[in-house]
TrEMBL record:
PANTHER family: PTHR27007. This is Protein kinase domain-containing protein. One of its GO terms (biological process) is response to other organism. InterPro entries: Kinase-like_dom_sf (IPR011009), L-type_Lectin-RKs (IPR050528), Prot_kinase_dom (IPR000719), Protein_kinase_ATP_BS (IPR017441), Ser-Thr/Tyr_kinase_cat_dom (IPR001245). Gene3D superfamilies: Phosphorylase Kinase, domain 1. Keywords: ATP-binding, Nucleotide-binding. Residues 30-91 form the Protein kinase domain. ATP binds at residue 59. The lineage of its organism: Eukaryota, Viridiplantae, Streptophyta, Embryophyta, Tracheophyta. GO terms for molecular function: ATP binding; protein kinase activity.
Amino acid sequence: KRKLMFEKIEGWEMDYPHRLPYRKIYRAAKGFKEELGKGGFGSVYKGLLPRSGIEVAVKRVSHGSKQGMREFVAEVSSLGRTRHRNLIQLH
């Protein structure tokens, strides 16, 4: 039996970080079908958060990335400290 939990995100909460599981990110990005661009670590895809209807950009790391894991971790760390209403928190 699957337990479903739905959380309503209030407007003021959008200014704070929240966590999303991979399956929700995959669904939001519609299976990573609509590519917006490419970066050093991989591609960026258009996504839509189903509950809020908010459009998001989802960065997906490529296994063939020319940049190393140290650089990737540095970028994630930097983005993780960035606070902006249009960015979700990275964990």
